[in-house]
Amino acid sequence: MQCFVGGRRSGKTWQMICLSHDTGFPIIARTKAMANYIEGQAYRMGKAIPKPIPVTNYSLMIGALRGEKVIVDESQGILEDILKVSIVAASIDGEALMLPLQDSAIGSLGFFELLRTWREERRAKREEKQCKGEN
Hints:
Layout: E1 2-4, H1 12-23, E2 27-29, H2 32-45, E3 53-54, H3 58-64, E4 71-72, H4 75-83, E5 95-97, H5 111-134
Parallel strand pairs: 1-5, 2-3, 2-4
């Protein structure tokens, strides 16, 4: 299993659409609205994909997709909806891919180096805001 990791608006769904286009696997979406968004985004990207399936369509998911390969968008949200909990940590068996970052210097950083860089940038921004607020 591949895992696309990133913050909001970092290109995860874009990667899912590309993967769906390349493999023909359908995308499971958290809501009908998100399924419609994914379908529209794929159209705007010029990528033909199978119709995205909202997780709320249980009859489709349980029967028609049994044993099939699928792509899941926003899996944390889907799992939280099913379990009725707030997930604070999870593990998966797979490979974390940060494809939008691979061509940049950030893509070559290790986890702790990336965390350190993020903390330094956050601290610098906070100090910058404090300086502007004082002047």
